Amino acid sequence: MTKHFTVTAYIVAQFEGEYKILLHRHKKHRLWIGIGGHIEEGENPVQALMREVKEETNLEIKLLNKNRLINTQDVEELVRPDIILEEKMPDYRSELAHYHIDLIYFAICKKPQYIKMNEQYAWVAKNSLKKMKLNKEVHYLAQKFFKLLEGI
Fold first, then answer.
1. Is pLDDT of 99 > 90?
2. What's the domain count of the chain?
């Protein structure tokens, strides 16, 4: 089965001192998920992530994981994803089932008021996650991110 490389950002912002995570309802799959898409030819994962977030939300983000040791004229260590998942994608119209190798990053947005999205979205507080119908993976990732934020 074909495998596509994708990136996803789980983005949080503070609203009146409370962190909330940005989720959007994917039109094709009808699921609440983070922001992202396919890595295009000529892009590295971080470039793809920043492009996808800007295109889909108009937001500027900072990645939570910034551990980079190597940065020379010829070699740059890329920011590592927080999680990598292999996700089976079902048949959709003329597109056959395939896999996404999804590089998932946790990010923070300082200016959430600039959001502009064409799809339904929500900034969700930790205590509201259970009220939403989320896939167990999305729920797990959101909970993991909120737990990480407790240490910041």
1. yes
2. 1
Q: How far apart are CA 148 and CA 146, in angstroms?
A: 5
Q: Is the pLDDT of residue 67 over 90?
A: no
Q: How far is residue 72 from each of residues 47, 75, 76, 77, 109, measured CA to CA in Å?
A: 18, 5, 6, 9, 28
DSSP per residue, 57-119: H----EES------B-SS-BPPPPPSEEEEEEEPPBTTBPPEEEEEEEEEEE-S-GGG---SS
CATH number at residue 83: 3.90.79.10
How high is the mean pLDDT of the chain?
93
Which range has the worst mean pLDDT, 26-30, 88-92, 110-114?
26-30
Q: Using alpha carbons, select from 114, 106, 84, 87 the residue that is nearest to residue 26.
A: 87
Residue 118 amino acid letter: N
C-alpha 60/C-alpha 113 separation (Å) is 11
| CA–CA distance, 143 with 15 (Å, rounded to integer) | 18
Residue type, 41: E
Inter-residue contact 34 to 104 (CB < 8 Å) = yes
Domain that holds residue 86: 3-149
